[in-house]
Amino acid sequence: PLLNKNNPKFLAITTDCLQLLAYGNQESKLIILANGGPQALVQIMRSYNYEKLLWTTSRVLKVLSVCPSNKPAIVEAGGMQALGKHLTSSSPRLVQNCLWTLRNLSDVATKQEGLDGVLKILVNQLSSDDVNVLTCATGTLSNLTCNNSKNKTLVTQSNGVEALIHTILRAGDKEDITEPAVCALRHLTSRHPEAEMAQNSVRLNYGIPAIVKLLNQPNQWPLVKATIGLIRNLALCPANHAPLQEAAVIPRLVQLLVKAHQDAQRHVAAGTQQPYTDGVKMEEIVEGCTGALHILARDPMNRMEIFRLNTIPLFVQLLYSPVENIQRVAAGVLCELAQDKEAADAIDAEGASAPLMELLHSRNEGTATYAAAVLFRISEDKNPDYRKRVSVELTNSLFKHDPAAWEAVSVPRSPFPWENQSCWEWPQLDPGYRPMYSGDIPLDPIDMHMDMDGDYPMDAYSDGVRAPFADHMLA
């Protein structure tokens, strides 16, 4: 109730006391919540211009912003907008507190309206040389552009892509800046009206070489994983294929894929559950690399390079993976590679027919369709009996959920609707990614949810919202 007084100096003392009581004390934070503290504190930030009061109030909000119970209450009270008002303050300590608080609240504020001004200021903040400012600005931008088409479009139109690339170039080995910046770029290059503009902007601002370099170890796996997803999105733009190839992205992806697959297989052989490495499972890297190679394989030159790196045995092996998403992207990349006769013969020689026949019955329609297309392509030189068996399998499995689809296919040349087409021309088969983060982090599944971010639709290895940097906050 004391927060309802209107004497700024008295309020400054009151909020200072609240900060001391709440700091490191979860019970006190919940008492503040139960007594309407978040709403009263947000109202102070919205209504006063006395710097000491704003600073002490922002300190309380910063402490409360690491509390899962208080966070939604602060956001719902208009906390993001109220804090954003002070990002251009002449008081560095106030700006710093507001930035940290925004960063910590932003993972529950992805659907908030009225943040246009905040987003533009955050893009401008990327020109700062202050590490804390850059850490907060990139993290907040990453969260606020997740699954929010309007925010992604606004940031792209506000030169956000250029600003994020320059931030990555200046950040060096500071992964607290680089990783959220890469994640923000991944959001901006996918699933909104200006996504293609963003994909082109990365190239035009000379970002591709710097981004590909981030695949190098010893970068942490979360950064590598985010970079793989961004590269996949960049490959959706045909104009990016040549610079990606010049940056040697394909050998690097293949190298990562082999390493991650070997690590995953070691745990399978030992009968141990695969541990997370810095929060990332190696099978997620396998899926990400294969998915990125799938998109890159749309280009004939890239297809040739992928084939020459002797990847087909591994892709065929991945068809046996117990992870449905990995089966799907493996079938997808084989589908693209099989457009070339030499690669189709190599796929057949590796014994791919058996697992592909099994995948025709996959619950995942995308996996089944890719498998069908590969089977068709590798059966072109087979005897009539083999082709008939494949045709019967396709009739029984691929169209079992939609009998009308078979009738809709225009035959005379072939009963296969995908003949002479690249995989990516088929409807509803734009490959996507699965959740990048676990548990309490909002994710970007795609598939039928075209408004969502992601790196593989239908399966979803997506770009998730980042959790608060609670460990960076001393409370």
TrEMBL record:
Source species: Xiphorhynchus elegans (elegant woodcreeper)
SMART domains membership: ARM (SM00185)
Record's protein name: PLAK protein
Family classification: Belongs to the beta-catenin family.
PANTHER family from the UniProt entry: ARMADILLO SEGMENT POLARITY PROTEIN
Extent of the ARM repeats: 36-79, 117-159, 159-201, 206-249, 310-352
BP GO terms, sorted: cell adhesion
Entry GO terms, CC: cell-cell junction; membrane
InterPro entries linked to this entry: ARM-like, ARM-type_fold, Armadillo, Beta-catenin
Gene Ontology MF terms: cadherin binding
